């Protein structure tokens, strides 16, 4: 009954159709013009027929839909790109930046297509736009001797995990649980997974990167400098440039790990046990990661509904030691030997991602997601246990929705040891766990507003129990309810509201980096980091600390 990590999400936008008086006539470059410009600026030639897709081509929808995870952003009412460009070589990405600038068409970049608000393939604020889809740039080069791997942006995390496991049973990488995530976008927002308590985030384990900047130059860590290298590891996607590859540091994993899933219903004291979990989850042995997946379910024979809390865990060790750890720290869950499955790290990846038990790891090479839906999601960080009475209020709200879903994700361990400003991702010491709220549906005819209203109300209800001043959120769980940029006028004041939620004080440094590397705001979207407005730049330059 535990949903696959990948089967969760999808959204519907209340679409703002541009009113006629706002429509300005823009000359849309033709795809031919763009193609020829790209040829002129690329190191190696590329055939038009396999790298450009216009809406009048029958492959257009297939390519557009291929990795788009949230079906809300594929609905007919949502604006579509003029064309999609799938580069075959890094220099084509450079050319795409140069040509998009030269020909005046807005650019969106997509790696794995999992953006919660569809920002990599749809836009509410920019027309016309093209999508640069990096799915053909997906090579993975693992160097076990060097403990590292170079991964191109279009590869999924599943492909990276597979390629590591192919070379070693005792190496791994601590990124997302859902195996179809694109490494390109994923790491830009942090990238957490089941080894975060031991090793931190994917972004904490990046050692180099290749990025195309707003001038179309390709930069590595050394040539981009430490400010930009800091900003791209957690500052959110598509604000600073296009990452073409990440170099990541591999981490040691034992040859035998243990996984389990134990489910408790309300009738089995779920509320009490969840209260207890909140007290221990961040203090457990760092080898142990227990997340809780919270759903509504039918209550069986008696009819009606209940709540299920599924404790879904990875332990970096064998079952005997796990049972000892559990007996000492969390006996209330009642874990037994027969709940435990000893396996290899790569198979634990499949287990946590929700694949059926004997799926071969090669499934990861398919590099695509198994399930899509319409969804809206939100996030919170929790710093004090939520009282049982408040949990009961959540259950009450759960019974009002068709497909309510939450994942509570434990912090502590390495997450508490890394400084808040080490990278832009600031949710560290003092965080007990993160909540992700999701509501999803399968039928395009559904009244999306009904579901979105429901999740917003639940979010309001939770306000007293979660982080405050600011109420923080995870940038990889992009949520446009928190505020968004306008087309002609990135509202600097408004941006500081959502900016503080995602990045706390790191938002200031992100703005400074943005102002330095992309002052004209070429890389922009509904929640991109804004550069300082010109007026403020001038004023600052006169000040004592005027260096930007
Ligand atoms: C089913 C599902 C499960 C998830 N599970 C996890 C999880 O376990 N852990 C976790 O941390 N997060 C998780 N996420 C959130 C995920 O990390 C983010 O959605 C992430 O941004 C996805 O990256 P992508 O490349 O797949 O998405 P995309 O939609 O391609 O990109 C996301 C954003 O980054 C930008 N971007 C994409 N590629 C690049 C690039 N090469 N350079 C610069 N900017 C780029 C895009 O324009 C967009 O703004 C999950 C999301 C979904 C839908
Ligand atoms: C459509 O795309 C395919 C593959 O890219 C190409 O072979 C074909 O010529 C295109 N057709 C049109 C009408 O553009
Ligand atoms: C549609 O296809 C024709 C060629 O078959 C091409 O000339 C034209 O530019 C395409 N239209 C768009 C909007 O790309
Ligand atoms: C629930 O907890 C109570 C005590 O708090 C205990 O007596 C009871 O046996 C528990 N029920 C289950 C099903 O575990
Ligand atoms: C959709 O849901 C919203 C919010 O619950 C409601 O106000 C609206 O009337 C509904 N629309 C339809 C067509 O049912
Ligand atoms: C830009 O934003 C500022 C502050 O929010 C506002 O006062 C101004 O009118 C806006 N300008 C335009 C053109 O929308």
Which tags fit this structure?
disordered C terminus, globular, five-stranded antiparallel β-sheet, seven-stranded antiparallel β-sheet, Uridine Diphospho-n-acetylenolpyruvylglucosamine Reductase, domain 2, binds 2-acetamido-2-deoxy-beta-D-glucopyranose, 29% helix, 16 helices, Uridine Diphospho-n-acetylenolpyruvylglucosamine Reductase, domain 3, 548 residues
How many domains? The number is: 4
Topology-level CATH name of the largest domain? Vanillyl-alcohol Oxidase, Chain A, domain 3
- Under the CATH scheme, the architecture of the largest domain is 3-Layer(aba) Sandwich
Q: Report the mean per-residue pLDDT as an integer.
A: 93
SS elements, strand count: 18
Bound molecules: flavin-adenine dinucleotide, 2-acetamido-2-deoxy-beta-D-glucopyranose
What is the CATH domain class of the largest domain? Alpha Beta
Q: Count the helices. How many?
A: 16
Instruction: Give the CA-CA distance, first to last residue.
Output: 52 Å
Work out the strand percent. 15-25%
Main β-sheet description: 7 strands, antiparallel
Domain FAD-binding PCMH-type: 77-253
Keywords: Disulfide bond, FAD, Flavoprotein, Glycoprotein, Signal
Pfam families: BBE (PF08031), FAD_binding_4 (PF01565)
Protein name: Berberine bridge enzyme-like 15
């Amino acid at each position: 009954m535990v949903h696959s990590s990948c089967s969760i999400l999808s959204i519907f936008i209340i679409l703002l159709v541009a009113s006629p008086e706002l429509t300005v006539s823009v000359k849309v470059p033709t795809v031919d013009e763009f193609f020829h410009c790209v040829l002129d600026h690329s190191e190696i030639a590329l055939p038009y027929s396999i790298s450009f897709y216009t809406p009048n081509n029958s492959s257009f929808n297939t390519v557009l839909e291929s990795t788009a995870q949230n079906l809300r952003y594929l609905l007919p009412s949502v604006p579509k790109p003029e064309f999609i460009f799938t580069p075959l070589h890094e220099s084509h990405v450079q050319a795409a930046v140069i040509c998009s600038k030269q020909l005046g068409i807005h650019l969106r970049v997509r790696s794995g297509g999992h953006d919660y608000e569809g920002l990599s393939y749809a836009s509410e604020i920019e027309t016309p736009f093209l999508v640069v889809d990096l799915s053909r740039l997906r090579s993975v080069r693992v160097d076990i001797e060097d403990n590292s791997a170079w991964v191109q942006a279009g590869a999924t995390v599943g492909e990276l995990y597979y390629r590591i496991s192919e070379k070693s049973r005792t190496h791994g990488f601590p990124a997302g649980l859902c195996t179809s995530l694109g490494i390109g976008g994923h790491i830009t927002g942090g990238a957490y997974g089941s080894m975060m308590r031991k090793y931190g985030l994917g972004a904490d384990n990046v050692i180099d990167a290749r990025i195309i900047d707003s001038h179309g130059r390709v930069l590595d860590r050394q040539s981009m400098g430490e400010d930009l290298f800091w900003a791209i590891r957690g500052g959110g996607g598509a604000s600073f440039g296009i990452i073409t590859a990440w170099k990541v540091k591999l981490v040691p994993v034992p040859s035998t790990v243990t996984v389990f899933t134990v489910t408790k219903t309300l009738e089995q004291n779920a509320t009490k046990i969840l209260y207890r979990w909140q007290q221990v989850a961040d203090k457990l042995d760092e080898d142990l990661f227990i997340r809780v997946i919270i759903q509504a379910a039918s209550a069986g024979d008696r009819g009606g509904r209940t709540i299920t809390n599924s404790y879904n865990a990875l332990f970096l060790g064998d079952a005997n030691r796990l049972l000892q750890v559990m007996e000492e720290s969390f006996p209330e869950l009642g874990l037994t030997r027969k709940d435990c499955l000893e396996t290899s790290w790569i198979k634990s990846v499949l287990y946590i991602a929700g694949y059926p038990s004997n799926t071969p790891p090669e499934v990861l090479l398919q590099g695509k997601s198994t399930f899509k839906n319409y969804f809206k999601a939100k996030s919170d960080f929790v710093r004090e246990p939520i009282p049982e009475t408040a949990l009961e209020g959540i259950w009450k709200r759960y019974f009002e929705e068709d497909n309510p879903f939450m994942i509570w994700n434990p912090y502590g361990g390495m997450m508490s040891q890394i400084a808040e400003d080490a990278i832009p991702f600031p949710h560290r010491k003092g965080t007990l766990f993160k909540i992700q709220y999701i509501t999803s549906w399968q039928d395009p005819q559904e009244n999306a507003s009904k579901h979105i209203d429901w999740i917003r109300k639940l979010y309001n209800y939770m306000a007293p129990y979660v982080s405050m001043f600011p109420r923080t959120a995870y940038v990889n769980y992009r949520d446009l309810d928190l505020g968004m940029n306008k087309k002609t006028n990135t509202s600097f004041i408004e941006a500081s509201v959502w900016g503080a939620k995602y990045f706390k004080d790191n938002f200031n440094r992100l703005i400074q980096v943005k102002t330095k590397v992309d002052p004209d705001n070429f890389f922009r979207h509904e929640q991109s980091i804004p550069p300082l407005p010109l007026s403020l730049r001038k004023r600052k330059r006169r000040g004592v600390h005027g260096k930007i």
